[in-house]
């Protein structure tokens, strides 16, 4: 993982302080450090040095509260590795200090037996809570949410609500958004702490609260939850179950992580790489292989169409071998332009900038832009065509360039729409897929034009 | 833009209500609607119907406060178009209700003359503030930040601080993080509202506050500011100037927008598309052309190397034309694998998962994975080689496949590191660039192996 020189120096000092059991030095090195940074330190001991012992020793010097906080910042694999070396008693103490969402995430990492052992040691409330939160499918609002929110019943005054907020403050993930529930636990309103602060202490919360609460459901896709947070600049989104009962909240920091993770997944999808779920430097080699090979092999077979096209025009090629000189250039250029068009469309769909209704308008725009691109590229390649093969060949290459770039761009732009229409993920229109299709079509277009204009084959 | 059927129906009702000046209907349709949603409505009137008049009429029905809020949710182009149709007096009233960051962003959209006219109508404090905030380069913390934060001097008690927070609450972007400044306005500490709430009213803020405040500078890249917010799960990051004076804060919602915008930029960069700054459905056609053509033309010339390679091996091709059948397949496959490797590396660097030091480790991992990928793909293509050209050709194609995929993957993985070493943006190692390089190398590798093993040319 990315590491700075300062970190390297600190590692050495910490190892010394640990060995010498120097509490003062440890306090000086770790005391003021933020949990995210301490977690990073532990990661480097594991990633770079394979040194779980030192990482565990460091974790042990921290209070349970701090240790739990640090533990929650660790990567999944690091949590698993360290947990393997921790006694149940200690691990449970740390887990109890973690946010309920992070605790549940960890539970989904450990095996059955360990889970049982840990649950047995937990207080009943926490045990039920973790089993509940851990039951949701990964990638949904349920899996993201925390149960540490502030909820009050209807009918309270502003000052009563403030008191509740103050009481719950130490345990809540966020105390800045308060949720009002009815007798059945259903979400009926929300109020921000800011609104509470500026209101008259005697005013009724029910009069001030927002009743049409922006919310999501436990089975909502995490991507959509993040979009909600982004659209309305929310601090947190409440999550309800099928009965509209409030069961958790997803906070802005988790939404931020989701946006980045989803972007990474989209970037990988754009290269026909399957979901890795872990950083590229840490994902197991076999998994990395499996997530890349599927489409690579499919596209090998896809590329046979290019070959078939070439076989069909073998006589044309034999008659004017100089034509082959321009083949990679033409299909490569078409592929580049097409991949650009596909990427713009897929990303536009992902950010909500482009919708299914926009197909016609985008088609028209792409027609114009791709025409201009093709023309420019044809003008760029024409002189080389003259030098390499003469005027006739130059004409063939120029016309082919315009045609292939136009065709490729329009195909690249339309493919995501078509896939969406068929009920598939538009992002399947990846750069490798689009370029493979354009390669095959480009071969046919080029040699057809050549045969026709040069009277070959 | 993406639009729902519900929106379509509402548009019709709104148009009717406006024409009939039906206040009750307007209140029913707009009253409970969130500002982000009203803004979306205005956008559709402009994007779909080119109907500024209705959009302006709608905006006029709102209070200044609501109108300013809605205006701040509009896209840049929409703000400009509407502002063109608004009297200075009205526009300034709306601007005064916007957050200071959004007000400054708008000022950077209008021409000199309009700016002067608007500034003349503004209160002195706001005028200075907007000139200050608008002076920062786009893409920096200064351009992102808002001046609407809560700051208190050192030496206050908890209850005094709470009172200040309560007083500033209506105007502050966020009241949940309080900043403590010294006599010169320098940032010396921070405290969350939560911490204030649970503290003893008589306690000294200076004793409770965090002194080592995570902060950023006015000229920091927005990408780095967002990373800070993500890493430490911050609600807001304070921004200081060269003298460490607090000048603004960047809130979590702006960080979220930055993460998405930066991801879009990275996705476009991965296809050699320059920064569009606007959605693909709205960016001016000429700009879309300019941002795509640069690399497309450069790569046309880059593709000439493939052509040169083919020219060099013209005799080999002439002797065994069946070889050309496999050319697109081999260089296409190598390009796909290489583009995958480059994308994984570039994204890894962008998310901080991969650092310069990791080159050796990643090289080793890629060697193994690419070897496996190449072998699998060679086995997939070998039977077709036998059918198409006989055993000798199949062997040539299989060996070429392994070699090209290995070479391409390692090249794709290394290129971002090399570019970074040269001080360039690693993301320049885009899919089109990588595939173009691999095309050229692939041609040479394939025909060299063919010449050698088949004794040709």
Automatic annotation (TrEMBL), chains A, B:
<feature type="transmembrane region" description="Helical">
    <location>
        <begin position="367"/>
        <end position="386"/>
    </location>
</feature>
<dbReference type="GO" id="GO:0015095">
    <property type="term" value="F:magnesium ion transmembrane transporter activity"/>
</dbReference>
<feature type="transmembrane region" description="Helical">
    <location>
        <begin position="293"/>
        <end position="313"/>
    </location>
</feature>
<keyword id="KW-0812">Transmembrane</keyword>
<comment type="subunit">
    <text>Homodimer.</text>
</comment>
<keyword id="KW-0813">Transport</keyword>
<dbReference type="Pfam" id="PF00571">
    <property type="entry name" value="CBS"/>
</dbReference>
<keyword id="KW-0479">Metal-binding</keyword>
<dbReference type="GO" id="GO:0005886">
    <property type="term" value="C:plasma membrane"/>
</dbReference>
<dbReference type="InterPro" id="IPR046342">
    <property type="entry name" value="CBS_dom_sf"/>
</dbReference>
<dbReference type="InterPro" id="IPR036739">
    <property type="entry name" value="SLC41_membr_dom_sf"/>
</dbReference>
<keyword id="KW-1133">Transmembrane helix</keyword>
<dbReference type="Pfam" id="PF01769">
    <property type="entry name" value="MgtE"/>
</dbReference>
<keyword id="KW-1003">Cell membrane</keyword>
<dbReference type="InterPro" id="IPR006668">
    <property type="entry name" value="Mg_transptr_MgtE_intracell_dom"/>
</dbReference>
<feature type="transmembrane region" description="Helical">
    <location>
        <begin position="392"/>
        <end position="419"/>
    </location>
</feature>
<dbReference type="GO" id="GO:0046872">
    <property type="term" value="F:metal ion binding"/>
</dbReference>
<dbReference type="InterPro" id="IPR038076">
    <property type="entry name" value="MgtE_N_sf"/>
</dbReference>
<keyword id="KW-0460">Magnesium</keyword>
<dbReference type="InterPro" id="IPR006667">
    <property type="entry name" value="SLC41_membr_dom"/>
</dbReference>
<dbReference type="Pfam" id="PF03448">
    <property type="entry name" value="MgtE_N"/>
</dbReference>
<keyword id="KW-0472">Membrane</keyword>
<comment type="function">
    <text>Acts as a magnesium transporter.</text>
</comment>
<keyword id="KW-0129">CBS domain</keyword>
<protein>
    <recommendedName>
        <fullName>Magnesium transporter MgtE</fullName>
    </recommendedName>
</protein>
<dbReference type="InterPro" id="IPR000644">
    <property type="entry name" value="CBS_dom"/>
</dbReference>
<feature type="domain" description="CBS">
    <location>
        <begin position="209"/>
        <end position="265"/>
    </location>
</feature>
<feature type="transmembrane region" description="Helical">
    <location>
        <begin position="319"/>
        <end position="339"/>
    </location>
</feature>
<feature type="domain" description="CBS">
    <location>
        <begin position="145"/>
        <end position="208"/>
    </location>
</feature>
<dbReference type="InterPro" id="IPR006669">
    <property type="entry name" value="MgtE_transporter"/>
</dbReference>
<comment type="similarity">
    <text>Belongs to the SLC41A transporter family.</text>
</comment>
<feature type="transmembrane region" description="Helical">
    <location>
        <begin position="431"/>
        <end position="454"/>
    </location>
</feature>
